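To: structure desk
From: M.T.
Subject: fold request, one chain
Message: Could you run this one when you get a chance? Sequence is below, nothing fancy, just the single chain.
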Amino acid sequence: MATQTIGTAGPETLRFGYGDTALGTIVVADSMRGVVAIFIGNDRTILLRELKLAFRDAEFVLDQTGLAQTIAKATALIDAPQRRTDMTLDLRGSPREVLSGRRCRRFPQAKRAPTARSREACRWRRRPRTWVRPALRTGSRSPCPATVS
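Reply: Done. Structure tokens follow.
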């Protein structure tokens, strides 16, 4: 399961919309399978440009009303990252990055000190003394690894 793409002949179409959080403006991009990106910034033009750079082969459609519920969930996640979310994610990347992201979703991000849960997360990597979250150690160029939590 390398890069997840829709089996169409043309470029993928991503819907996007904007929201406001305590950290600034966000842009949320959604594919047919779920949320593919959440960017945080201050300028909507710059956010859209970064989104287009991250997904060069995709076509973008502004769908503010269609993504209202997803944007609300993303805003709630950013404003209170310790809470879980039921957003559907479209994880992309190498098989290792996708597996790492799926495993990290089981563990809360708010805990920084080594705990039994973080030891378990690192144990599968055969590096029991590495307390850095596996998703951040894969070298992923993911726009926002924090959304995996």
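Reply (cont.): The longest helix spans residues 68-79. Let me know if you need anything else for the meeting.
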